[in-house]
Amino acid sequence: MPPYKVRRTLISISLSLCTLAIVGGMTYWLWPGATAATPATAPAVPVTAVEIGRQDVPILINAMGNVRSQRSVDVRPQVDGLLVEFPVSEGQLVKKGDLLARIDDRAIVAALERAQAQQAVAQAQLASAHVDLRRYRALASTQAVSAQTLDQQTHLVAQLQATLKSEQATVAATQVQLSHTRIHAPSDGRIGIRNLHAGNYVRTSDAQALFSLVQLDPIGIDIALPQARLPQLQALMASADRSSVVLRAYSGDGGSLLGEGHLDLIDNRVSGATGTVRIKGTVANAQGRLWPDQSIVVSLQAGMMRDVLVVPQRAIRQGANDTFVWRISDGKAFPQPVDVAYTDAEIAVVEGIQAGDRIVTDGYSRLRPGTAVNILQAKDAAMPVASRSTP
């Protein structure tokens, strides 16, 4: 073969090999599935979760209320006189019948002694008149005295009887006045700040009371609830054991439990101005943690739901068309529609899930149906109802 033909053949072979290399490289890079590795799986979303259980849940009515003393007295003088003694101190707890104040009684004692003396004179005069009347009646039977004399003596006896009654009334009134010089506690309670001190002359016409006395234990609770609650309240009041309707009083921020008691009554009308109905309750207050006119948060137990599914309130999510929770199954989260039967600040009673299901309580903002999850903290079921200390 001539040399020029050999060179032409070598050039053709070289061009063919280059073409094959280019086509093979393009096929490797462009053919589907020809890449070296598939993308990595998305990481699991960290969440916290609880396992759902059944329990009894009290139905609570929560509202703002005010503390009212069941007996509050402005202690005022009932007689004029010099205030000589305060046997009790400001802020002191007293019992019914304790001596609270004493007014100078010397003038009234003297008046009482005078009235008693006049009563004794009237009694003696009446006794003498009765003796004469009996004598005149005996003589009248023999006509030793005239009928006129007998009539006069009869009228004198009647007059002296009236005089004696008048003197007896004067003695009784003066004794009452004397009793008013010693002011006693009408009930158990706490003494307020005094407005006057011993040595002042007091009058019954004084506008200012000596001090106040308020009963603290038990103490009353005054609450205004929407009129829509009226049927529920009426059902409670119609129950056989009204004292079983538990009422709890908390501090104004809803934190500390201050006392427990029961519902007493519903007012006899609804306020047309506010659309609310007033109810009153009684709370034990032996520790003195509730104070008259204090604003409090009141929680009224209106019933009990037995053996129901309970989830934390924060686990409830609101969708466009339904309410749901994120239920965990096989390490993945799925939205599970639920029906909420009851809810308060901490828990919700639901239907649509099963006891033992695990649901997400925090970290759901990044969840999508089927998202893998990493449970950071597994808790027991929602906080037991009995241990909840705030309304």
UniProtKB/TrEMBL annotation:
Q: What coarse category fits the chief subcellular location reported for this protein?
A: membrane
Say yes or no: keyword Transit peptide present. no
What GO annotations for molecular function exist for this entry?
efflux transmembrane transporter activity
Gene3D superfamilies assigned: 2.40.30.170, 2.40.420.20, 2.40.50.100, Helix hairpin bin (1.10.287.470)
Cellular compartments annotated: Cell inner membrane; Membrane
Which PANTHER family would you find in this protein's record? MULTIDRUG RESISTANCE PROTEIN MDTA
What family is reported?
Belongs to the membrane fusion protein (MFP) (TC 8.A.1) family.
The protein here is known as: Multidrug resistance protein MdtA
- Organism, by scientific name, is Pseudomonas fluorescens
Q: Which gene encodes it?
A: mdtA_3
